[in-house]
Specification:
This protein is of the alpha+beta class. It has 2 domains: about 180 residues, Ribosomal Protein S5, domain 2, CATH 3.30.230.10; about 170 residues, 2-Layer Sandwich (Alpha-Beta Plaits). It contains 10 helices and 13 strands. Strands 1, 3, 4, 5, 6 and 13 form a 6-stranded mixed sheet that branches. Strands 10-11-9-12 form a 4-stranded antiparallel sheet. Strand 4 and strand 5 form a beta hairpin. The longest helix has 25 residues. The radius of gyration is 21 Å and the shape is globular. It starts with 8 loop residues before the first strand and ends in a 5-residue tail after the last strand. The mean pLDDT is about 95. Bound molecules: alpha-D-galactopyranose (GLA). Alpha-D-galactopyranose binds next to helix 4. The site of alpha-D-galactopyranose (GLA) has 11 residues, from helix 4.
Amino acid sequence: MNKNDSYDLVVKSPGRINLIGEHVDYNGGHVLPGAIDKKITLKFKKNNTNSATVYSKNIDSQFTIDLSNLNRSTIEWHNYIIGVIYYINILKPKSVKGFDCYIDSNLPLGSGVSSSAALECGIAKGLNELFIIGLTDIEIINLSKDAEHTMVGTKCGIMDQFAVVKGEKNNLLLLNCKTNDYETIKVDFGDYKLVLLNTNVSHNLASSEYNVRRSECETAMETIKAKYNEYEYLCDVEPQIIKEFKNLLPEKIYNRALYVSKENQRTLKAVEAIKRNDLDALGGLLYKSHEGLSNLYEVSCNELDFLVDCSKKYDQILGARMMGGGFGGCTINIIHKDFVDNLIEEISYAYRNEFSIDLTPIAVHIDDGVKI
Ligand code: GLA
């Protein structure tokens, strides 16, 4: 397959950032993500057969899917695509016919900017258009999430797929993951820029521990509900109530619950800070979020902690924290525009000295969601 072949349609599917509200989406909380200007490009054409052939330029690899016999693959990236087709067919039987798809990307893989949701939603949006299937955005969001649960095995929340599909240029989305209602929050940080620092590590604990955290939250909820049946999600429970369970829950489970409850509140406080243009307060919330993710929720790693500690040394950096599922990937930083280059250089130097790894800075702009 060649990028110069003629295609019937081209989809651009972005990655996402999340300013704050980490690991709260699957607990019915509030998150503050946005789509970014780094994207996967997917070119589609019908091939009038009963199979789909998908080529990825970045890994120079191609595979073919028999559409009448959809099975899980042993290769992870195949499963995002097979899973999406599987779930489209559940909602709209036999709607996906033979197609070729050429994929190219400037979105770093495994860096916590959700290349997986970009791939799922890009495939779903493209097939929806190519075969005039009539799926709504929310159906695309949910089926992409389901594909990740079943075919890939990560029991993710809805944040990534939501941001990829519903993102709006220059706006973050304050998304209530309980109701799927959202408010757009204009991003204008004046002299400050959002910069991601990619640790370039991705520890393989990421997907297994992710599911463990999710079930730890469910365990906490079972105990809390035994006393307070009115709460449906962990994020509904205020920190004061969680504290009543300090001696009733195992320490780790208590810590997870306390983190989640406080992080949900931090997202709402962050939005208030943005609205009153109080970037110092916003930065402080990012640091608090990282502390919780590292000490209570235990999804950080040495490389991420090192970068956040480095950021704290500079007044020109208002806040920093790990972003996404954790165990590697990026930190998100709010840095004064006049110091971005210098600080990146200093932090990269320190990081290389400590870990012998090169850091990759990614300047992100908040952009529109997936587009045909
Ligand atoms: C991953 C998941 C999301 C969310 C984040 C953590 O990106 O896909 O659903 O849980 O981790 O906030």
